[in-house]
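step 4 of 6: structure.
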Amino acid sequence: MPTVYCMPITFPETMTESTKPTTISTEEQRRRKREWYIVVAVAVAIFVVTYIESHISRISTNLPAATNVIVFGLININIILLILLVFLILRNFVKLIFERRSKIIGSRLRTRLIVAFVSLSIVPTFLLFFVVIGFINKSIEGWFGIRVEDSLQGSLELGQNYYKAISDRMVIYAKQVGEKLAKEGLTNEDSDKVRAYLEGKLSETGSSTIEIFSANRDRVGYVIGSHVNQNMVPDIPLESILNAFEGNASNFIQTLEKGDVARGVSPFFSNDRKTVLGVVVVSYYVSRSLISKMREISTAFESYKQLKILKTPLKASYFTTLLIVTMVIVIFAIGIGRYMAKEITVPIQQLAYGTTEIANGNLDYRIDIEARDEIGVLVSSFNKMTGDLKATKTRIEEANLDLKRTNTELEQKRRYMEIVLGNVAAGVVSIDKNGNITTINRVADELLGISAGISLGKNYKDILRPKDEHFFNAMMTEMKERGVENLERQVQIDVKDKTIPVLINLTMLKGDEGEYLGMVAVLEDLSHLLKSQRMMAWKEVAQRIAHEVKNPLTPIQLSAQRLSKKYRDRFSGEEAHIFDECTRTISKQVDELKMLVNEFSNFARMPSANPMSNDMNEIIREVASMYHGHQKNISFNFNLDKTLPMLDVDREQMKRVFLNLIDNSIESIDGAGIITIDSYYDKEYKIAKIELADTGCGIPEKDKPRLFEPYFSTKNAGNGGLGLAIVSEIVADHRGYIRVKNNIPRGTRFIIELPVKSI
Amino acid sequence: MFRVFMFLIIAFSLHISSTSVWSMDAMVDNVFMVNNTDDMQVSFEIKNAFTKEIEEGIKSGMPTSFTFFVELYRKQGFWVDEALASQIFRHTVKYDTLKEEYEIILEEKPQNIIRIKDIEQTKKIMASSENISIKPAYALKKGEQYQLRIKATLDAVNLPFPLNYMLFFVSFWNYETAWYEKEFVIQ
């Protein structure tokens, strides 16, 4: 039994356990188990059906029971297997149709192959089938043709007529003998005359025996031919004699073991024909050889008649047999077709599936089909290709991993460098040999006035301002001319609206082999350095002034007072007035000088900050309260942030900051005005911001850059222009920052920013 | 699996149905019983025993047989009935085309071959069984309930080999009557 399987193959994204070629899947095991069930069920069914049929059927009772069982068993096996095959084939066809509809890979090719095989087998098989059926039909019709029937009928009638003629002759002979005996009056005598007559008649007619029965039923005459004996022609049945005595003549054929006997029985009557005088029986023995010949004719006719009755079933039987054979051929053709199709399409399906798997990245997929033909070569090549692909992929992946690792390290280094560059106070710019910027940090961006993030990859000539570009070009030219690889120059660079001193260190970059790679420039902002140098210089100056100036001041003042005391009386009038005014002026100027010297001295010896946790709002209120009632034309507004946290500041120094600032504001206000002090806390940057705004005359823009330098004042201040310098110093000591802005609509606004967690 | 078993059942049913066709008309009738000391004599006949096809088959010379089954049981309530006696015998007819006469062999009456030319008389003899003697294992007792069962089957026309195999599915001459069952009590 060819078992045809049709395994629907779909293509999942990745290979599942069931499709692994080296293991038997659970589905496969289940299928095999199911097939075993079917085999067992079919075997049981065949056994049961055979058993039942051999018991219930009476067709072949003349055959041994074992033969019946074998025959029925074979028939049942054939029928059931045939039906099973048809079922399996149909099922597979249905599956094939569904596979085609589902567009499963390989189904089209399989269908085509099966259709080709089936067409190749069905067409000639059915052609042969119909031709053979035609022949059989014609032959069977020929068997039962009219001629055959007529000839058989004629032969049979010949035999029948033979028997009939003999019988008829026998009864005629019997009548003749009876009439003769009645006429001659030889009725009751067994005389020699009668015997002679009977023997004469026997030889004349060729009969086997002639018997005469008297009226009292006794056989009174009996002659037998020499060619027969009494065993061949036994006594006639009594019923026939009795029937004849009733006046009826009859003839019949008596069938005996040794042959047939034709009997003619006739009564003979008295003259008045009213009395039966006796009965004559003439018998003729029909020899066995003659009977067998006639029996052959009759058997042939009987067989013919039986076959004629069975003509239609016989045709049906032949038809069925032929049909079964045809079906077997067709089914086997289909089975072989499916097998061949499977042999071809399954590897193709596997290949297609394999390509899908490989396309999905599963390079472990292998086709597990053993074939020695070209498909085997194809499968082997495919498996080799997959293996090679996997090896290559593994190598690429390893290389990729190395590359990634290196890249990560480089990226880490780059980021580290970026962080370093981003956090150094100096600006760093590097260019390649083409002049394109390869590195630039935030400080460099600020110093060179470049928007952050747009300069990388661009040529420095396109990015730098003409003035800056000129510096760089000049330095490079100088390096070229002098043949040095490093050059340092201090230049003034415009940053926003101010010009700051910058130290540019330009270094040539060279590779391991000395090839030119580009330039790196380090830009250092010198403004803070210069400022602190200036501040230090000022402090030293102040200290020396204080030292040099303060000493002679007291003798001058004392001398002036002594002059006034000793020589005042010597002058009068106008002179006295001049003298007084001069001595007062000397004394007053000495006081002012003292105060100035003290300021210088204080500035030079300003103590370092001693920060402690303080409430800045409270410090502001405390300072402002000192002005309460003294400045009637000036009002104070406070917008203080209650959420402002405690700050680590030196209370006294901070008070001095606000005193100086408020003094400045009061001085700048001519007449009435408003001083506004705001505080608020920037949670994001953790900065406390205090803004002090006045509605005074404001500060010209040109003075703003030097506003916080010592001895710089926009007016003739009594503190020698050190107030804002001290403020700036204190704020700087607290790691804060102070700047000045114009107040809207008028006046000045000082903004102090202090870190909340300073020191 | 379900589909496979369904298919087997259908195949089996089709196959079985093709092997036996029952005559709906033939039946056991006119049953008479006579209880003697030693045996019991039963007479009966089969009504509508001959169909047109059977008659035609017989006339074409096919030997045809009726097999009769006569069984006697003692009723035992809910228990299985006890078989007391059974008789199986056969009537066979064969038409002699040469002599144009029917040769009937009645198995219950050995040494007696009946030859007659009349088909109607032949049919009557074939379908009738008279005074069939059934000898039970022991004498029937008064007051006990017994059951007589009679069935007749027309054996298939004995086709010559290999027609008997070729035409194994041709079964329209085969039939058997239903069991005739009659319960009685000996008085």
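step 5 of 6: annotate
 - The two ends of chain B are 60 Å apart (CA to CA).
 - Chain B has one domain: 2-185.
step 6 of 6: archive
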